[in-house]
């Protein structure tokens, strides 16, 4: 889990009010555990990793109830849980109200893009699974491919508008859900984690995704802009 800016007192208050007014409400154990997690958050690193046994002693609920509360809080989206190793303690990222709104907007956009595109579903099996069924290319096919590539390199480069339109036809095949998955992998590889992506304004992600689907940006350029935006905000 990478470091994140801890919630300040005002943000914690908004989180408490948000979940106190939710319908359906959290269970008593889950709300009590969430309040203890807010209180236990490290004010410098943002880390929050109390044990289930310790929280049971502090809240008066059984350890089993506390662990059920962990599950409910994660399923409802109040927290994101990490574990560095199988026997290590849980580490919790508590979502602010702003982050909760952003997650909801991304989820809505993802479901909308899924409804509008019946092809290239993100749940489709990866092409790698069918690689063994592919026939080996013959030498003639390879030669033909090289010949076509050399021929295309000699052609005049099209104007920027036609290039964008050409790229746009292929970029629209990636829906928002697949885009988010691939961006998260890059953020995790850079050490920023999923919470790094969530710290960006939802409008920024929507604009960049929109430009990519229109062919204005490639995927690598889109991710580059998101990383640049994140780094400028945390520096």
From TrEMBL:
Residue stretches of biased makeup (Basic and acidic residues): 163-173
Disordered: region residues: 135-173
Signal peptide annotation: none
Gene3D superfamilies reported in the protein's UniProt record: Winged helix-like DNA-binding domain superfamily/Winged helix DNA-binding domain (1.10.10.10)
InterPro entries: WH-like_DNA-bd_sf (IPR036388), WH_DNA-bd_sf (IPR036390)
SUPFAM superfamilies listed in its UniProt record: Winged helix' DNA-binding domain
Protein name: Helix-turn-helix domain-containing protein
Source organism (scientific name): Aliiroseovarius pelagivivens
Lineage: Bacteria, Pseudomonadati, Pseudomonadota, Alphaproteobacteria, Rhodobacterales
């Amino acid at each position: 889990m990478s470091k994140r800016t801890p919630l300040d007192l005002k943000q914690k208050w908004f989180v408490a009010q948000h979940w106190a007014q939710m319908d359906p409400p959290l269970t008593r154990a889950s709300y009590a555990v969430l309040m203890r997690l807010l209180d236990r958050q490290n004010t410098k690193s943002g880390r929050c990793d109390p044990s289930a046994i310790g929280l049971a002693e502090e809240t008066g609920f059984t350890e089993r109830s506390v662990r059920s509360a962990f599950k409910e809080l994660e399923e409802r989206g109040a927290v994101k849980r990490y574990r560095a190793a199988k026997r290590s303690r849980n580490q919790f990222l508590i979502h602010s109200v702003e982050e909760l709104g952003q997650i909801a907007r991304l989820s809505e956009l993802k479901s909308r893009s899924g409804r509008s595109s019946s092809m290239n579903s993100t749940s489709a099996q990866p092409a790698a699974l069918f690689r063994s069924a592919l026939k080996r290319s013959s030498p003639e096919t390879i030669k033909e491919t090289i010949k076509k590539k050399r021929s295309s390199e000699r052609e005049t480069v099209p104007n920027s508008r036609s290039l964008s339109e050409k790229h746009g036809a292929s970029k629209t095949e990636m829906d928002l859900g697949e885009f988010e998955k691939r961006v998260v992998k890059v953020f995790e590889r850079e050490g920023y984690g999923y919470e790094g992506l969530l710290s960006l304004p939802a409008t920024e992600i929507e604009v960049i995704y929109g430009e990519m689907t229109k062919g204005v940006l490639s995927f690598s350029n889109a991710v580059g802009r998101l990383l640049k935006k994140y780094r400028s905000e945390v520096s």
